[in-house]
Design brief:
Distance between the termini of chain B: 27 Å
Order of helices and strands of chain A: HHHH
Order of helices and strands of chain B: EHHHHEEEEE
Distance between the termini of chain A: 7 Å
Number of strands of chain B: 6
Radius of gyration of chain B: 17 Å
Strand content of chain B: 25-35%
Oligomer: heterodimer
Number of helices of chain A: 4
Number of strands of chain A: 0
Structural class of chain A: mainly alpha
Radius of gyration of chain A: 11 Å
């Protein structure tokens, strides 16, 4: 989770401490369509995975990102 | 010489490491047109006497006018008509004067297959030195639906 949070924090310009499973485009103003693509790009780079466009569009909040990463075999460090 | 027919590169056509470039000289008339379009009539750009007394000694081209040629690079050369320009960073390193010979250059540094976004290192070169640089992110639109 730590790396995921730091990526989200960097792209969305929000505090890591404010990020939780429910964090989503609905409650973070900076999570717009451009930053959503930047998040995909950074996650793929960091975790060396490749998402499908269906997976990308299915993501509605941080919890969905975590589940998607898990399906790709990424083990997130819990804080 | 800027071409007038936009390229139509597909995502697959674009290779990491590929370089796209063109030459251009910004004339006084273009600077005056840009001043009119943007409303930036700063004397540094348009008043010869004022600029003569400044540290530059002569009129300089608006940085944003020169940087606008990154848009030309993206929209006309790589990817061309299939581009959706997402972002552009810009650093102004050296002054550009009227009639300087410039090379506008973009090097593909990254491609993301999922998002179909390419990253270009963009530069404007003057006398072999970087006058302006930055980074562009461009989505390459598909054949259908996204035009």
């Amino acid at each position: 989770m730590k790396k995921l949070k730091s990526i989200l924090s960097m792209i969305l310009e929000i505090e890591e401490s404010s990020i939780n499973d429910q964090t989503s485009p609905d409650n973070v103003e900076s999570w717009d369509s451009f930053n959503a693509l930047m998040i995909v790009s950074e996650l793929e780079k960091e975790f060396k995975v490749r998402f499908t466009m269906d997976e990308v569009t299915a993501v509605k909040c941080v919890k969905d990102i975590k589940e998607s990463l898990k399906r790709h075999g990424v083990l997130l460090q819990e804080e | 010489m800027i071409m007038t027919d936009a390229a139509a590169l597909s995502f697959q056509d674009i290779k990491v490491g590929a370089v796209y470039e063109f030459e251009h000289k910004i004339r006084k008339e273009e600077v005056l047109s840009f001043a009119k379009l943007s409303g930036d009539y700063s004397p540094m750009h348009v008043d010869e006497l004022y600029a003569k007394k400044s540290r530059f000694g002569k009129n300089i081209v608006h940085g944003m006018l020169a940087a606008s040629f990154f848009s030309t690079l993206v929209g006309m050369y790589c990817p061309g008509k299939k581009s959706l320009y997402l972002s552009q960073t810009v650093q102004f390193k050296l002054p550009i004067y009227y009639d300087d010979d410039l090379i506008v250059k973009g090097k593909v540094t990254e491609k993301n297959e999922t998002t179909r976004i390419i990253t270009l290192k963009t530069e404007i070169i003057k006398e072999g030195k970087i006058a302006i640089n930055g980074e562009a992110k461009v989505k390459v639109m598909g054949e259908e639906n996204e035009q």
